[in-house]
Specification:
Blueprint lengths: L4 E5 L7 E2 L2 E2 L3 E4 L25 E5 L7 E2 L2 E2 L3 E7 L2 E4 L6
Parallel strand pairs: 1-8, 4-5
Antiparallel strand pairs: 2-3, 6-7, 8-9
């Protein structure tokens, strides 16, 4: 299984975000119910590696159709604001 790539990230205030691209090596999605980006880091410090595009390391939202044994089966996802939360916008409930 390949890790899902983060195609775009709209979390502008996140330390890993530069030009709507996530530069963490891998992100974690969810709190078992809600598809929140657990890797979100709001700080004035910049993090990650500009040569890297993030992948989904783990997804804890078991109710997503793309979740298989805590792994995301999408080829790529989009992260962005859903109300005031930064979520996986590719989340689809079962």
């Amino acid at each position: 299984m390949n890790m899902a790539r983060v195609r775009e990230c709209g979390a502008i205030g996140c330390s890993y975000n530069t030009d709507n691209k996530c530069h963490a090596f891998a992100i974690t999605i969810g709190d078992t119910v809600h598809p929140t980006c657990d890797t979100l880091c709001q700080s004035i410090l910049k993090g990650g590696d500009s040569e890297v595009t993030a992948h989904v390391g783990a997804c804890k939202v078991a109710s997503c159709v793309h979740n298989s044994s805590l792994e995301c089966e999408c080829s790529e996802i989009e992260v962005g604001y859903q109300g005031s939360e930064v979520d996986c916008l590719s989340f689809e409930p079962e």
